[in-house]
Design a protein that fits this description.
Elements lengths: L15 E7 L2 E10 L2 H8 L3 E6 L6 H19 L3 H4 L15 E3 L2 H17 L4 H14 L9 H17 L10
Antiparallel strand pairs: 1-2, 1-3, 2-4
Helix pairs in contact: 2-4, 2-5, 5-6
Length: 176
């Protein structure tokens, strides 16, 4: 099995999908995942706080696909929150996850995650179809995936390539 079949090196852990807010920006919301919910916000910044946590639908790899689809919905509908995105080098506003902040309300971010969950159910938990949707949705809407989101894009492309060309996937990507 090719090593890149695993999207992340802790694919065996459960993961939470969340929305975080920033004390300095009421119109900035982060859509992300973590395996350690209780310490994630503190790791980013003292100004970042947890707003909402969503139902787990599998391990970190599967949650990663759901997170990326929700982020693509937010990217297309609302765009990235530029002030935090441009803070990537200085790290004065937050220490990580700069590309995961979107120019939207809490309700709008929650709607993007709800839309991603609906897609998971409509695709019958098909991870390969979900991975394809993560890449095709923004392209079909005429939006290019930004450079600061390239790492996950390459991981998803590798996952699709491995499955389509070699006919297997990581057995470690478990479903509930």
């Amino acid at each position: 099995m090719a090593e890149f079949s695993r999207l992340w090196n802790n694919n065996y852990n459960d993961a939470y999908i969340y929305i975080m807010g920033h004390k300095k920006f009421s119109d900035a919301h982060k859509i992300g995942i973590t395996t350690h919910l209780d310490k994630r916000a503190k790791d980013i910044s003292e100004d970042v706080f947890l707003k909402q946590v969503f139902k787990k639908l599998g391990n970190r790899d599967f949650a990663e696909l759901i997170e990326h689809l929700a982020q693509m919905y937010a990217l297309v509908k609302y765009g990235q929150f530029e002030t935090i995105k441009l803070d990537r080098r200085k790290k004065q506003l937050c220490s990580s996850g700069h590309s995961e902040w979107f120019n939207c309300s809490h309700a709008q971010a929650s709607g993007c995650i709800a839309q991603a969950y609906k897609k998971v159910y409509s695709l019958n938990f098909d991870k390969l179809a979900l991975a394809r949707e993560c890449l095709s949705y923004p392209r079909n809407k005429g939006v290019q995936i930004p450079d600061d989101m390239r790492r996950w894009e390459v991981n998803v492309q590798s996952y699709i390539y491995e499955n389509e060309n070699f006919g297997f996937e990581s057995e470690d990507i478990a479903l509930p």
